[in-house]
């Protein structure tokens, strides 16, 4: 079995100082998977939070919201749990 990480397609609305950290957290969340997932990390329209959107056509479309002070470990844990459900 070969692990296939989640592919990050967009994170442009995330501040540059958090972007790499959050992208790495989302990729880490998908390392144990055998199926390809796509991910977007986006700021909410009011910019008060951000969300990780995970998709795998046609059966998966998940959005996991976070406060800006969420740690990389929290992001990895919650995204992994959402993908495992």
Question: Can you walk me through this structure?
Answer:
- It is a single chain.
- This protein is an alpha+beta fold and 85 residues long.
- It has one domain (7-84): Double Stranded RNA Binding Domain, CATH 3.30.160.
- It has helices spanning 16-29, 72-84, and strands at 7-10, 38-43, 49-56, 60-67.
- The protein has a four-stranded mixed sheet, covered by helices on one side.
- α1 packs parallel to α2.
- The radius of gyration is 12 Å and the shape is globular.
Query: Span between N and C termini?
Result: 20 Å
How would a crystallographer describe the biggest sheet? 4 strands, mixed
Biggest β-sheet: strands ordered side by side in the sheet: 1-2-3-4
- Name the average pLDDT: 88
CATH class: Alpha Beta
Summarize the structure.
The chain is built from 2 helices and 4 strands. It has helices at residues 16-29, 72-84; strands at residues 7-10, 38-43, 49-56, 60-67. Helix 1 runs parallel beside helix 2 (72-84).
């Amino acid at each position: 079995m070969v692990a296939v990480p989640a592919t990050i397609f967009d994170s442009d609305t995330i501040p540059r100082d958090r972007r790499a950290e959050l992208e790495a957290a989302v990729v880490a969340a998908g390392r144990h998977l055998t199926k390809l997932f796509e991910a977007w990390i986006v700021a909410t329209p009011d910019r008060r939070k951000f969300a990780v959107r995970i998709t795998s056509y046609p059966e998966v479309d998940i959005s996991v919201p976070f406060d800006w002070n969420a740690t990389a470990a929290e992001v990895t844990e919650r995204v992994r749990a959402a993908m495992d459900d």
